[in-house]
Write a structure and sequence with these properties.
Shape: globular
Number of strands: 29
CATH topology of the largest domain: UDP-n-acetylglucosamine1-carboxyvinyl-transferase, Chain
Low-confidence stretches: 435-453
Helix content: 25-40%
CATH superfamily of the largest domain: Enolpyruvate transferase domain
Number of helices: 14
Radius of gyration: 21 Å
Strand content: 25-35%
Length: 460
């Protein structure tokens, strides 16, 4: 079991470039695999989760060519030649690892194929509910079998001709919405998904980028069947969910400043900035739009943070950032309330329970609710032994907490960090080693034959 030991913050690097956006990398790989032609993906996030999506498309006929890698991070540029919309039956069950995004979005694609596929994952993924995806896909005509009442993995999906549906989501979920829209590409007529509140819209934006027409009317998103994605190159911006860790570290550090380079600024993902601004953080950013996604540099100046309430319609916009925002709450003055966040219970772990337990270990008073928690901020944090519960966001959030704690914080089970942020420990070291200069800029090196071989054999 990997461990990470963290001591109190020493200094700040001038700037950091975070790896590519996880949500966009997944979708780029899938649309490229379904497209007619070859797509070059630059800025790809080579996390274990995203590589599961690449290898899944490869197993179903897409041709993957590694192009460039960064030492310590991995493959950041690749070419994918798609099969057109009709994939080939894989020769073995498809491993989704720890990636709920891979399993749920791929279910939508497989619902429209004329073969049967089995999807499986690790122990954590196998506990996550898939019925929320299976129900609408079954209404469209697919046959989906799983384990227990929640229809957990492994899933057995038998695809075929699909009928369009007009479906109201029972919960706000970008993954379920995306699965239905992907299935809608293989259905007759117009498939419509109605969201209770707007969720992240990376699928809609990437559909536009790949030439797929779709419509939005209020909270209803529709797509017409029979469209074939058109191969087109894409540059992935940095992941704002990864940048959020450094935003909180800087925001809670008076007299410090950091610039986060080329961060994705999709309005459905910038809730973390809005919450920190409400807490008193000083954050500014530039913005441009490339390949359908807003992006820019984010500058954070440190100061005193104040408590706030996080809930309601903003929750889908900050669902992945709530663990690190809980750490920000512990560092703020006053009591912060997080509510309406039941979805945290069914992530890689029960994130409400995991955050509450680990904050208590560090001396923070926390009152836990079914849909969130109340955090009493302002007390000095104490070093502690932290359990990640095999959850990458818990691991990274409490690495940041450890930077503000007295004594040493030991985080157990940090191998999970690579599911979303390869290179996190390197970037963390820039804060802890006491150097004040800007971080070194990694040099892209042309991929070698052994790297291409490792991709084919499943080693990366």
């Amino acid at each position: 079991m990997a461990t990470l030991k963290v001591r109190k913050l020493k200094s700040f690097p001038a700037e950091i470039s975070v790896p590519g956006d996880k949500s966009i990398s997944h979708r780029a790989a899938m649309f490229a695999g379904m497209a007619d032609g070859t797509t070059i993906i630059d800025g790809f996030l080579p996390s274990e989760d995203c590589l599961c999506s690449v290898k899944a498309m490869q197993a179903m006929g897409a041709i993957v060519e590694p192009l460039e890698e960064v030492e310590g991070i991995g493959l950041v540029k690749l070419a994918i030649t798609g099969t057109g919309p009709k994939l080939k039956a894989p020769s073995a069950p498809v491993d989704c690892g720890n990636s709920g995004t891979t399993m749920r979005l791929l279910s939508g694609i497989l619902a429209g194929q004329d073969f049967t596929t089995e999807l499986f994952g690790d122990a954590s993924l196998s506990r996550r509910p898939m019925k929320r995806v299976a129900d609408p896909l079954t209404l469209m005509g697919a046959k989906i079998e799983g384990q227990g009442e929640k229809l957990c993995a492994p899933l057995r999906i038998t695809g075929g001709p699909l009928q369009h549906i007009h479906y109201t989501l029972p919960m706000a979920s970008a993954q379920v919405k995306s699965a239905i829209l992907l299935a809608g590409l293989f259905a007759t007529g117009k498939t419509t998904v109605i969201e209770p509140v707007a969720t992240r819209n990376h699928t809609e934006r990437i559909m536009s980028h790949f030439g797929v027409k779709w419509l939005r009317d209020g909270n209803a998103v529709s797509v017409y069947g029979g469209q074939v994605p058109r191969a087109t190159d894409i540059v992935v911006p940095g992941d704002i969910s990864s940048a959020a860790f450094w935003m909180v570290a800087a925001a809670a550090s008076p007299d410090q400043q950091i610039t986060l380079k080329n961060v994705g600024l999709n309005p459905t993902r910038t809730g973390v900035i809005n919450v920190l601004l409400r807490m008193g953080a000083h954050i500014t950013h530039s913005e441009t739009t490339t390949d359908g996604e807003p992006r820019g540099n984010v500058i954070v100046k440190g100061g005193e943070l104040n408590a706030t309430v996080i809930g309601g319609a903003e929750i889908p916009n900050v669902i992945d950032e709530l663990p690190i925002l809980a750490v920000a709450a512990a560092l703020a003055r006053g009591n912060t309330l997080i509510k309406d966040a039941q979805e945290l219970r069914v992530k890689e772990t029960d994130r409400i329970a995991a955050v509450a337990e680990n904050l208590r270990r560090m001396g923070v008073q926390v009152l836990e609710f079914e849909d969130g928690m109340e955090i009493v901020g302002g007390a000095p944090l104490q070093g502690a032994t932290i359990s990640t519960y095999h959850d990458h966001r818990i691991a990274m959030a409490f690495a940041i907490a450890g930077m503000f704690a007295e004594g040493e914080t030991t985080i157990e089970g940090t191998e999970c960090i690579t599911t979303s942020y390869p290179g996190f420990e390197h970037d963390l070291s820039l804060f802890l080693k006491g150097d004040s200069g800007a971080p070194p800029i990694p040099v892209l090196s042309r991929v070698t034959r052994p790297v291409a071989t490792r991709l084919r054999t499943g080693e990366i």
